[in-house]
Backbone:
């Protein structure tokens, strides 16, 4: 089955710095790559997604890049704020939607 | 109020009993999913369904069962065969392949 590996498992950054989370996948048929943010005690919510025909997508302070040849995609958060502290999940989709193990991001003031 | 609803929020059961977790959506989504969330292990796929009366096993289906008799509903039964049932269970739905998935608020199941 599909295997989605996500790194790092924890990430501590100073407010204002950038954060990068990387994911790799195994199924070359995957064509949709969303990122979800889960704040403590809340449900996961989509923050950005990218499709296989696009290499990069930006939305204000967040961006996602995709390298289909290498089968990896990354989430970039710039100018981090305390409100960015959460668990972030990458996922891949081809039929079923499968998630990575998550990255706990802590933004310290 | 539109969305995806899981009930109850907290559930306690004795070991050896089957228990059914409810998931209902009024978003007209075709696809529905069940995930189990344990600390440090992310969201692991239990079962998913792309259409009514059809569903497929995910990565950790053993000890679980589902039905999809209605588009709006995708109940999950945790059977006594599931060795470690205590966990946080999340249901999600989407329009299908390559579409944003929306999550319910989750059910925390504790088996004692």
Residues:
């Amino acid at each position: 089955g599909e295997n989605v590996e996500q790194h790092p498992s924890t990430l501590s950054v100073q407010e204002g710095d950038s954060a990068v989370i990387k994911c790799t996948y195994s199924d070359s048929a995957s064509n949709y790559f969303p990122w979800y943010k889960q704040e403590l005690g809340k449900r996961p919510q989509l923050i950005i997604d990218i499709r296989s025909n696009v290499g990069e997508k930006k939305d204000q302070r967040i961006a996602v890049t995709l390298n289909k040849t290498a089968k990896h995609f990354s989430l970039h958060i710039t100018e981090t704020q305390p409100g960015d502290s959460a668990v972030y999940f990458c996922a891949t989709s081809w039929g079923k939607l499968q998630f990575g193990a998550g990255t706990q991001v802590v933004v310290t003031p | 109020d539109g969305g995806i609803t899981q009930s109850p929020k907290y559930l306690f059961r004795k070991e050896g009993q089957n228990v059914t977790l409810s998931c209902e959506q009024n978003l007209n989504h075709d696809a529905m999913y069940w995930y189990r969330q344990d600390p440090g292990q992310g969201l692991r796929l239990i079962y998913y369904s792309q259409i009514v009366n059809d569903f497929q096993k995910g990565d950790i289906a053993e000890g679980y069962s589902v039905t999809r008799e209605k588009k709006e509903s995708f109940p999950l039964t945790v059977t006594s065969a599931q060795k470690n049932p205590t966990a946080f269970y999340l249901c999600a739905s989407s329009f299908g392949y390559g579409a944003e998935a929306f999550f319910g608020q989750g059910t925390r199941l504790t088996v004692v």
